[in-house]
């Protein structure tokens, strides 16, 4: 009897259940699966909801970690990106769902070049960045965003400041993300922050009451509204990216580096080397787009299939690096493709410092100078339509 079998299995062994969605690019539709995760042996099992049949037999899969299993997150199971949309049972909801939150963080124009430092602090607080986009707000957009402060005496100055240059909006996720991020920011006035919370971000990087590094949502309702403002899930597109699309090269901080928490360090190294990051955005690239982006390497580089798999195995962060003759000079900062060789020949390059092997080599950079614009366009014009 199936019911008895299911019951006995779940009583014998710990199991987490989720309802997930996967976008099938060939059929262009969303498919729903139940996902089961067995922590004892790190195995997964998938059940096709529509067709009511096993889709994936219980299989060991060590790349999935228990801390990534919560509703709202996106996980990778055998190169399929699954959105965890609901807990499959009360046990899973109680055990894994209690404290996970999403919140909006904005890095304001005063510290845009210190984004790496801020990300370091975010990762060290056990928050993860699940979305990120550099945008420049119009006066109107900034006024809409800060509508709650409309009647305050500082409203005009605030709107003027926040629309004065690029900002980076991020979705942060983790245990008590909202209060964790606000605690990390510290008191709104940077001078007060230096007295009362000297370790806080505003104490370290802020200037005064208005130039105070960042914004954080202050309630669940605000978080929902503000995330929708920058990352609309339904209609519209949100504020546009900042890509210039001339005199530029493309850098991708690869998926493995993001999940190892190296994003902040890599951005710091890029800024320290004097490069201008003129656009920044996180993308979840699907297999078809990864294949298209890496097309020129197909049949040329033995690692092509693994490169495709790496690129679509989770979120990556794409940068537009802007400047004259920048494709060549940026390649030098990245170093030879193989991190082992980089460590011998160019020990201070990004791949020497942050790469693991020829595929997980921390960053992609444009090969041919004439491809710089094309690669940047691929992400910032085609994928971010
Ligand atoms: P928080 O950003 O910590 O949520 P508030 O919501 O109170 O702080 O204010 C929103 C933003 O308005 C602040 O981050 C700051 O940039 C600006 N601001 C707040 N109070 C003042 C003030 N008295 N003078 C100038 N700017 C202010
Ligand atoms: Mg506020």
Automatic annotation (TrEMBL):
<dbReference type="GO" id="GO:0001726">
    <property type="term" value="C:ruffle"/>
</dbReference>
<dbReference type="InterPro" id="IPR006602">
    <property type="entry name" value="DM10_dom"/>
</dbReference>
<dbReference type="GO" id="GO:0005813">
    <property type="term" value="C:centrosome"/>
</dbReference>
<keyword id="KW-0131">Cell cycle</keyword>
<keyword id="KW-0547">Nucleotide-binding</keyword>
<dbReference type="GO" id="GO:0030027">
    <property type="term" value="C:lamellipodium"/>
</dbReference>
<dbReference type="GO" id="GO:0004550">
    <property type="term" value="F:nucleoside diphosphate kinase activity"/>
</dbReference>
<dbReference type="Pfam" id="PF00334">
    <property type="entry name" value="NDK"/>
</dbReference>
<keyword id="KW-0378">Hydrolase</keyword>
<keyword id="KW-0808">Transferase</keyword>
<dbReference type="GO" id="GO:0006183">
    <property type="term" value="P:GTP biosynthetic process"/>
</dbReference>
<keyword id="KW-0479">Metal-binding</keyword>
<comment type="function">
    <text>Possesses an intrinsic kinase activity. Displays 3'-5' exonuclease activity with a preference for single-stranded DNA. Does not seem to have nucleoside diphosphate kinase activity. Functional component of the gamma-tubulin ring complex, implicated in the regulation of the microtubule-nucleating activity of the gamma-tubulin ring complex in centrosomes, in a kinase activity-dependent manner. Part of the dynein-decorated doublet microtubules (DMTs) in cilia axoneme, which is required for motile cilia beating.</text>
</comment>
<dbReference type="InterPro" id="IPR036850">
    <property type="entry name" value="NDK-like_dom_sf"/>
</dbReference>
<dbReference type="InterPro" id="IPR001564">
    <property type="entry name" value="Nucleoside_diP_kinase"/>
</dbReference>
<dbReference type="GO" id="GO:0005879">
    <property type="term" value="C:axonemal microtubule"/>
</dbReference>
<keyword id="KW-0206">Cytoskeleton</keyword>
<keyword id="KW-0418">Kinase</keyword>
<comment type="subunit">
    <text>Component of sperm flagellar doublet microtubules. Component of the gamma-tubulin ring complex.</text>
</comment>
<dbReference type="InterPro" id="IPR057579">
    <property type="entry name" value="DM10_NDK7"/>
</dbReference>
<dbReference type="GO" id="GO:0006228">
    <property type="term" value="P:UTP biosynthetic process"/>
</dbReference>
<dbReference type="InterPro" id="IPR034907">
    <property type="entry name" value="NDK-like_dom"/>
</dbReference>
<dbReference type="InterPro" id="IPR011410">
    <property type="entry name" value="NDPK7"/>
</dbReference>
<comment type="function">
    <text>Major role in the synthesis of nucleoside triphosphates other than ATP.</text>
</comment>
<keyword id="KW-0067">ATP-binding</keyword>
<dbReference type="GO" id="GO:0006241">
    <property type="term" value="P:CTP biosynthetic process"/>
</dbReference>
<keyword id="KW-0963">Cytoplasm</keyword>
<dbReference type="Pfam" id="PF25364">
    <property type="entry name" value="PH_NDK7_N"/>
</dbReference>
<feature type="domain" description="DM10">
    <location>
        <begin position="12"/>
        <end position="100"/>
    </location>
</feature>
<keyword id="KW-0969">Cilium</keyword>
<dbReference type="GO" id="GO:0005524">
    <property type="term" value="F:ATP binding"/>
</dbReference>
<keyword id="KW-0282">Flagellum</keyword>
<protein>
    <recommendedName>
        <fullName>Nucleoside diphosphate kinase homolog 7</fullName>
    </recommendedName>
</protein>
<dbReference type="GO" id="GO:0005634">
    <property type="term" value="C:nucleus"/>
</dbReference>
<dbReference type="GO" id="GO:0046872">
    <property type="term" value="F:metal ion binding"/>
</dbReference>
<keyword id="KW-0966">Cell projection</keyword>
<keyword id="KW-0539">Nucleus</keyword>
<feature type="active site" description="Pros-phosphohistidine intermediate">
    <location>
        <position position="215"/>
    </location>
</feature>
<dbReference type="GO" id="GO:0008408">
    <property type="term" value="F:3'-5' exonuclease activity"/>
</dbReference>
<comment type="similarity">
    <text>Belongs to the NDK family.</text>
</comment>
<dbReference type="InterPro" id="IPR035525">
    <property type="entry name" value="NDPk7A"/>
</dbReference>
<dbReference type="InterPro" id="IPR037993">
    <property type="entry name" value="NDPk7B"/>
</dbReference>
